[in-house]
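[audit] Reproducing an earlier prediction to check determinism. Same input, same settings, fresh worker. If the tokens differ from the archived copy the diff job will pick it up downstream; this log only records the rerun itself.
[audit] input (535 residues):
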Amino acid sequence: MHFRLTGNSSSQDPNLSRNYDTLRHGHPQVPMNYSSIANGQAGGPADGGGAMGSSNMQHTHSYTPGVAIPTLTVDDVVEDLGFGMYQVKIVALAGLAWMAESMMVNVLGVLGPEIYCKWHLSPDAEAAISISGFLGLMLGCLFFGFVFDRYGRRFGMIMSVGWSAVFCLITAFSSRYVFLIINVFLMNFGAGASSLAAVYSTEFIPVKMRSTAICIMNFFWAGGASLTSLVALLFLGHSNSADSSGWRSLIASCSVPLFLFVALAYKYLPESPRYSITRGNPIDASIVLKKFADENKRNCPVGNLVADQVSTKGSIGNLINSYMWRKTTIGICTIVFVVRFCYYGTILQTTEIFQEQDVGSFCDLQGALGLYRCKAMCKRLHSHDYIDLLLTTLAEFPGLVVTYFIVDRYGRRLSLAAVLAGMALGYSVLFFCPGRQLTDAAFFVARALAISSFNTIVLYGAEIYPTNLRATGLGLCSFVGGCGMLFVPVVTEIISKTSSRLATTIFVGLAAMGAFTALSLPIETAGLKLGQLNL
């Protein structure tokens, strides 16, 4: 392979000064030895002494004996090799993980009404099912953010999805309410790593294609949401019996793409070369980049492969010790809180409206809580409700198209602010107590803009954090976003049935707060290389 590898070890160490001809294509006479990295310089006389990130560095595809070889970062190699079939496979695998996680999250929206009827639960007990799932998401994203940065992207992806697959299947066989609550929590604990799949995929993508790749991944997420509605229609939409076990089949079916991902990932998913090089494993990074070049049918650039930062293990303390990172993290966490609340709030609020058969408008939910508590009522969703739910989930696709056309043209911050402001306007329609069709339209628009804002803030977070803090930073922000999700069932299943206008005010107020926060983010990341902003 056409890389000379450098790491944290000295080239004078006889155990490390070995010839790695098997990793190279071409020039077996050029040894691939380690040399030290210090202060952004590649040490050792054989390394050419080039500074990392030098603006006059030339990428060549041939080696001339006696000529100094330039240093290369993973960013340089990724930009040189471009976008090709290798990245298509990476995005497809990460997208499959996202689709599977989306199915598990969206199934919470239809599970509550079904279990309410089967086990004759109170509204508070029904809300507890969603709360347990969101609590699992909240804690899982924090835990797996640590795993991604400490033990690797590949290990974190396989572990999180495998965890979800096992407990998703176990949940389908829950025989008691308390077991269901525990299993839903554990199932969604693994799904907490869903946003971190974007961290993994962006580390393989050139700058110009990064927003496109994240949009493609979000199409998988939207596909998972739509597939959940279709499967729910298949197993639940044509059954009128409250004793139906269709919900078990629904949950079990959600485990299929999870197990499929684990099988494929174990064989085909590589470790991120950015992670490997920052953790002092340049040989591992070199192997992945060679395969990258081979599958894209490109020649590897010649140079010493070095880290663009000398990395320590990421920690939350690194995010709060610096004023810039502290301000940035608070801003991202606030927006993730808003986006997750609005996105999942839209999902649960939609099913609440469909569940209440006599609702003519969103405002007619008011007073329904007392009706539920005074009567043992079982209002299951019917086939036409699942069809309407499917149409609502399809809103995510135009939302992603909007993201694709605006994030590069207008930048991440302005795009976020505009989309969140539009979401606030969409929710404002509910103040006027519209009928069922206009209410559905308002939630359609809100869901489209919610997924658009989710796509943009994940892209922004993946771009702004350095490699050793990328998963930790997004994991922390997802944890804070999970706090917002915990309040969703309270608003959609309790507050909206006592004061619909108060529920609307909460949605509008949070969306507006998110728009102002987006404008206050300190740095625009459009066009930045990953890791360009270091601590």
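[audit] rerun output stored. Observation attached for the diff report: The two ends are 31 Å apart (CA to CA).
[audit] end
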